[in-house]
Amino acid sequence: MRLYDFEVTTIDGRKTTLEPYQGQVLLIVNTASACGLTPHYKGLQELYSKYKDRGFSVLGFPCNQFAGQEPGTEEEIKSFCELNYQVTFPMFGKIEVKGEGAHPLYKYLVQHVPEPYRTGEIEWNFVKFLIDRSGNIVRQYNARTEPAEIEPDIRGLLAAPSASVEP
Q1: Number of neighbouring beta carbons within 10 Å of residue 145
Q2: Measured between alpha carbons, how far is 142 from 84 in angstroms, rounded to an integer?
Q3: One GO molecular function term (predicted)?
Q4: Is 158 exposed, middle or buried (0-12, 13-18, 19+ CB in 10 A)?
Q5: Residue 120: what pLDDT?
Q6: What does the radius of gyration of the chain's CA atoms come to, in whole angstroms?
Q7: For residue 4, what pLDDT is reported?
């Protein structure tokens, strides 16, 4: 199965796949609105705003699995993100990202991160996965990695569509 084949639901409740993002560099992130790391939304939005016209997108997947830090409805999550962080990048419906109930997309992401860039299971909110234009998972970043720290890797992938991140 390819990354683009996974069925997902938008934050507005529309069923789709990741096919519309084929050919883009992606940063897929599990998010939460009541987490100490919630300010990562600001950095994610800055990256999206800066590089969206060059073929980059952030995809946010709210998750309530970590200390109940995303308890709201999709409508509440969308409103929170727009009002507090001016989020315009694509957001999706709430999912589970680990354990038996993990969304198939997240099972795939965790299983296909190449060594030495795999940080392991999803440990908390705001774990980030960088995907190249061909749909290959390039790297996993732990929850505490600030979005700005990922910018050089994003620039590298945007500059050379078939390039991968060097250690």
Answers
A1: 18
A2: 23
A3: peroxidase activity
A4: middle
A5: 74
A6: 14
A7: 97
85/83 Cα distance (integer angstroms):
6
SS3 139: strand
**Strands, DSSP E only, in the chain?**
7-9, 15-17, 25-31, 56-62, 128-131, 137-141
Kindly report the CATH class assigned to 3-158: alpha beta
Query: How is the chain split among helix, strand and coil, in percent rounded to 5?
Result: 30, 20, 50
Annotated catalytic residue within 8, 32, 35, 105: 35
Q: Report mean pLDDT in 10-residue bins for the chain, 167 residues.
A: 95 97 97 96 98 97 96 96 97 96 96 84 95 95 96 93 48
What are the residue boundaries of the structural domains of the chain, listed by start? 3-158
Cα distances from 154 to residues 3, 22, 39, 45, 89, in angstroms, run: 18, 16, 20, 14, 16
Instruction: Note if 35 is an active site residue.
Output: yes
